[in-house]
Amino acid sequence: MDSHRFAKRVEQLAPSSIRKMMGIARRLAQEGKTVYELNMGQPDIACISGFQEALTAKVREGHICYSPFIGETYLRETFARYLNHHFDQRKVKHLVVEKENVLVTVGASHALTSTFLALFDPGDEILCVEPFFSPYSGFMAVAGGVLKAIPTFAEQGFVLPDDDQIEKSITPKTRGILFNSPSNPSGKILSEDELTRLARLALKHNLYIIGDEVYREMILGDQESTSLLQVQLEAGLMEKFKNSFIIIDSASKSFSLCGARIGFVVGRAPIIDNIAKVVAHTVASVSDVVQYGVARAYEQILSDAEYVRNLRHTYRERLDVAMIAIKEYLPHVVAPRPDGAFYLMIQFPDLEDVNEYAMFLLERFNLGGETVAVTPAASFYLTPGRGRNEVRLALVYEPEKIRRSIFIMGEAYKAFKVYRGLEKKASLR
Hints:
429 residues, alpha/beta, Aspartate Aminotransferase, domain 2, seven-stranded mixed β-sheet, 45% helix
């Protein structure tokens, strides 16, 4: 018998529900079915042209080199200019981000994992606004930390609970607060007041505060996204925080560059230097070719933000179509309209376990050879029982395909109710 075992940190990592559905969807596609993969936040929109042109030019130079582990200077400078421009556009005064405040990583996932490894020891607790991006659990498990939920609810507009309620979760082991705004999966944009309350709580209890702001450009309504950086400045907290705030960002969604794998950590220089140590000892450096292309992408929108404007228009149009289709084909569900990102949370009030429906939809049901992959939402929660009757949809297809997908979901739901009824009758015989 083989006595070798895997490390405990790996044994406690749960399989990704998003990736599980992707694997099944790809297998069915190979078998000839058409699968609308609404389970993955993989944009179908062409990436920004500046990236393509710069990448091609860089490859033709013929020199593909190692980069500094903290990231290429030209990308760090360009991203800092982008943030400064972003805040200038919103009339945020006296906020200056410099290259020393920026670390380049292999996507936002690597940025988060490196940050957790640099800041938290095994057993440390981190409060996280729930629902949250499900891979947070795995990133924190690798670092040995423990996530604890700050629950928010769709019927209340996903607003944060009162400070007193949040403080009940703070213990001597608590070391940080983590939030994602705009949120994947809920689409919630935390208000300036909500962010200020989180910042003040972090300051009061001497906690790190980490803002995952990768969807900052993905705005679906009238409310613009507010950054942790501007909240700290406007609330007069910037100097008090010193080395305790961190911003996570990425080029993946803003420029449809998921496969480029470029992320950023933003913070005071001492915190950046320490997180950079983790980067140096894990990936050594990020691809210099890709960094060159991403730098050009940021330069492009600094001179002309047309790409981002078109992106927002596209996702708003898709959301409008999705909301109408849900009302028409899934009238029994609850689907709050999101403020940002490009996801929809759908609640099926009469289902105890939406996993059965999701698997039925994907594997057992098809309409003319077409079916749909969705993500069951339980993995977006820490609180037991939450998300069991919810799914998340990603609006990553053109409007007609989104409408068709939701129509198929509606037809599958009718068939599923019959299927479940027949199954229960059969079990009683």
